[in-house]
Amino acid sequence: MAVQTVASTTDSAAGTSVDLGPAAALSCRECGHRVPLGPVFACEECFGPLEIAYDFSAYDTEELRKRIEAGPANIWRYAPLLPVPADVATKPNLNPGWTKLVKADNLARELGVDAGKLFVKDDSGNPTHSFKDRVVAQALEAARAFGFTTLSCSSTGNLAGAVGAAAARAGFRSCVFIPHDLEQGKVVMAAVYGGELVGIEGNYDDVNRFCSELIGDPAGEGWGFVNVNLRPYYAEGSKTLAYEICEQLGWQLPDQIVVPIASGSQLTKIDKGLQELIKLGLVEDRPYKIFGAQAEGCSPVSTAYKAGHDVVRPQKPNTIAKSLAIGNPADGPYVLDIARRTGGAVEDVTDEQVVDAIKLLARTEGIFAETAGGVTVGVTRKLLESGALDPSLTTVVLNTGDGLKTLDAVAGTGLTATIRPSLDSFREAGLA
Amino acid sequence: MAVQTVASTTDSAAGTSVDLGPAAALSCRECGHRVPLGPVFACEECFGPLEIAYDFSAYDTEELRKRIEAGPANIWRYAPLLPVPADVATKPNLNPGWTKLVKADNLARELGVDAGKLFVKDDSGNPTHSFKDRVVAQALEAARAFGFTTLSCSSTGNLAGAVGAAAARAGFRSCVFIPHDLEQGKVVMAAVYGGELVGIEGNYDDVNRFCSELIGDPAGEGWGFVNVNLRPYYAEGSKTLAYEICEQLGWQLPDQIVVPIASGSQLTKIDKGLQELIKLGLVEDRPYKIFGAQAEGCSPVSTAYKAGHDVVRPQKPNTIAKSLAIGNPADGPYVLDIARRTGGAVEDVTDEQVVDAIKLLARTEGIFAETAGGVTVGVTRKLLESGALDPSLTTVVLNTGDGLKTLDAVAGTGLTATIRPSLDSFREAGLA
């Protein structure tokens, strides 16, 4: 199948016959124009982003709840709400999700949050230790449905590993594009799964531009780029964070939720997921607030939020939180909408605050977060201090990655003492 | 409470009143001598290792099965079979376990195992990404029961992180002892949880000797060394691997199971767990074979196995599989017994074969294993080639750790191509 970027309503080849469960069509987020399901991501009318439109009309609330609760301990318990076939759990994939929602009473005490009210959704428990496994798993099912045989992406880190691992398990060829001068550790992590790992002579923008070119070329035929031509499907994976949080809270909405912002897609899909649960009657309809978290060194959305702007001015990233370092976030305006509509906010923290927050989370809850988790915990602290977050309400903070992947951030951490192997030396060091 | 190494039957202070669920006493593995539950690990009669004796007499098989299946998605679903209080799931801990049992059909194809018969038990999904979270969680409950306030261990890697994280979550002080010249990455991983991390001027043997000295000294009062004075409790955590494997196979014993050997404790406790399930009627009683896996550079048990010896001669370790590098494995003789009794074997592989096996598992199943996982997969391949493993039987291979912690082992892995950001360059590289 030839790859295309813009859908046409007259294009039936794009897959009216594909079985992606409740996914009924693609719908433009800007103008509402609908097109059949296919490997396209931009509206032919207005070039707005396409997203999945569902048909949930057949669901009975209590039957659905029972079906979910009887499902597997991974994202496929929510298959009835995702763009995947009903038998998805039987297909080879990494089965991500159903990660721990940790009641963080020690952290709550340090931050002045009421006991029992603060939770960390710890996505480091996913198969490749980041939330990217959730979104790649959706893209993989779309790739299967559209007959693609190669799974691809541009990446500088977590996504490369998630795509490589998912393709390996599912029997796809994978070809991941990264800047040629990436840190050796990240290259190893992406290369170990045995797919093609191609270094592009240039920066991440050059990598992205090349990928867009490849999608439009015959050489890209049969290629599913998870975060480009499969993006509408891919992005839906973030809804599962919302589903899991609510189910793990006993089918309750959280009052407040703190989400990291890279492209902004995750935050918008968490909002979409919460709205779906409300409409389906799976949770009670009551207000919730969504807060966005950025690093100061890449804070285009929080800058716009604080300035009261509706548009997001691109920035050149300079922060240790590299998994969030998207200077021109595609979903930035939608994030601003959601933060303002729900009564949330968007805030940023310095790299120093990120490191402090990583250490704070580790020493209070035993969770070693990636820099992105340092950003959300740091922003949570800042928003509590400013009064934007209410310490008496149920609050969920996302940790979307794993500290083992960003060891450099806490490289200053080390031995608290060095002693000789003797009790005298032990006592002299004041350890007794 | 004063810490002691050897129990006395007349010592009631050691805790006849402690509530550790079905744990009834400590029993010597060598002579069967029983003493009350307490922080002791060696028999006063014969200096044999003490292990937990349970009272499971009150359990009805079907009620127990239902209770387990209705339990949480972590090791505490098996609380009725562990030395922990019944309300353990309500106490702050890392809630490890219930990791994925991956049907490894791609790996099976490569190794010549029948489709649907090969499984990888992937313990990299634990909170600190190794099976050590299972054992530390048991030691933590014992530490609580005995009134300890400091959690401690000697370690060169996985255990340090598991103890640091568990202590942080549970509100214990932690003090971890490591050789002072450990690799910086490992130091960071252990230090981030904020406990005391003490470098000992000496090698790992010196660290261990110092810890034993500290346990006998007043300075060690109130200290629970998870792998020394709490070892009988700690070791029981490995039983949960056996429980999970059988439950995940639909309450069936595996025919063959391949287990890494460090001290050998894990293998012996997996056997104990399988035997318990048989006695409790939770699985059908039929033969199973347990295979032990070592790295050639530290293969005291496989050397003894192959030579037909009952005793294990210590070796000086020299292998990249550092988490298995125990040259004088305490449970070596028991491992030999079990391998011979069940019709299994003990085998070893070279470091080169370990690396090959890590890559094989990654490219077939998307699982990035620690070197210990490379050892088990490599040994599985070798045992299939020799005919010791039957490719038509249900076989479970353990991956007990995470590749992110032993990146150096696959540091040679890298880019498959480097190109300019152009389609011409892409085609020239033969990637189209």
From TrEMBL, chains A, B:
EC id: 4.2.3.1
Cofactor: pyridoxal 5'-phosphate
Biological process according to GO: isoleucine biosynthetic process; L-serine catabolic process; L-threonine catabolic process; threonine biosynthetic process
Name of protein: Threonine synthase
GO MF entry, a single one: threonine synthase activity
Pfam families: PALP
Coiled coil feature spans: none
Xref: InterPro entries: Ser/Thr_Dehydratase, Thr_synthase-like, TrpB-like_PALP, TrpB-like_PALP_sf
Family per record: Belongs to the threonine synthase family.
N6-(pyridoxal phosphate)lysine: residues bearing it: K132
Domain Tryptophan synthase beta chain-like PALP: 96-401
Alphabetized UniProt keyword annotations: Lyase, Pyridoxal phosphate
Organism of provenance: Streptomyces calvus
